Hints:
Distance between the termini: 15 Å
Oligomer: single chain
Amino acid sequence: MKFISHDCVQYHATRQWMGKMKATYSKLNVAIAMCTLPFAIGLKFVAIDDDKPSTWKRFSAFTTSILFQFWLYFISYFVFVGVFGYSLLTRWDINGASRADWLTLIWVGSLLYEDVYQVTRKLQKCRWAAVRDFDWSDRLFWIKCFAVLFFVVGVFVRFAFSHGNDQIYPTNFQWARRLFSVAFCLYCMRGMEFFIMFPNLGPKLTMIYKMIVDVAIFNAILLVSVIIYGVAVQALLLPLQDSSWHMLTNVFYIPYWQIHGELFLDYFNGHNEGMSLCDRYTASVGVNGTEIEVCVRSDPLAYLFLSMYLFFTIILLLNLLIAILNHTFERVEADADILWKYQMYILISTFENASRPPTPINWLVHLIIACWKLIPQAKRRKPTTNSSEKDLPVDGQLERLQELCMATYLSRSE
């Protein structure tokens, strides 16, 4: 990360990010330029050969930058999230799919196509080294995989299974909505990738991820205390209950909500608003051929376990969790600037391999390009290009030198 945050690397990354635009322009200037075309034409460019470039050259230099491409993807993705949410909230037609459903299906297919396209471009550049050096712990990769998996299974459950007798809200619709709801949450989490561009939000995403890992480790300690307390208390309050899944539920249900302040004191007293709890927990227990009711029996030792459990979880464990999260925050905040520069470098590399047009028209543009390449070379006008590095401007030669230095450094470090 420290090498990526070096000034030389950051200069090269900024030039890629801004394209031919002046690097001092803020995000607000670019956002206004996207909304108002005259403002975009009036921007200053530093990498155009002509002293007075034409309007078309200015417009082309603005639209070919990675920053402009990023904003297009940003707007496109959140339009997709809105369409997906609208499709999920509205009533589904049992006889077919609505326009929002079809648009969501096409959009998800376009996102999947874009991910495959980026992987193929990396393989073309780095061969199989990209597969060998792939970071399988990348959380964004797994979010994308599970989002597509839940969505595809949801589509299959909705359209492949029969509706049954219920013609208003069939069972397969209920399961499909559950799968689509999980997929919607995952796609929203995937959209947090765009927040990396902002220096105040990018490191916060890493903080949240590390805090989730800390909480997962902390839950292991909490789970042990919940099992100890739950088994001990249920053994005292319900000594005559039969073996059932309801017994296992009581071990975790009541201790969990007591952490959040729901103490269930009426349950510990054996009554609820003057009514016995025998009706809630009844079972047949054979004792000399007779049947008896299983009631909640109040026990003084259960109150002692309750006070010790609340003291241990709320006072000790909760403060321990706060201290762990505070340590994680300070550790990430100390290297926030270096971390953000590294995240921006990864983001620039991602959009450098991405399609120019955003979803869902990316596959259509690629289809047109593929058809254009099928046209015989004789019928196409050959473009006049000059690939000689000697004719490059000074900025181009410096960028080429930086690329060679970076490649040499990385090869030696490996």
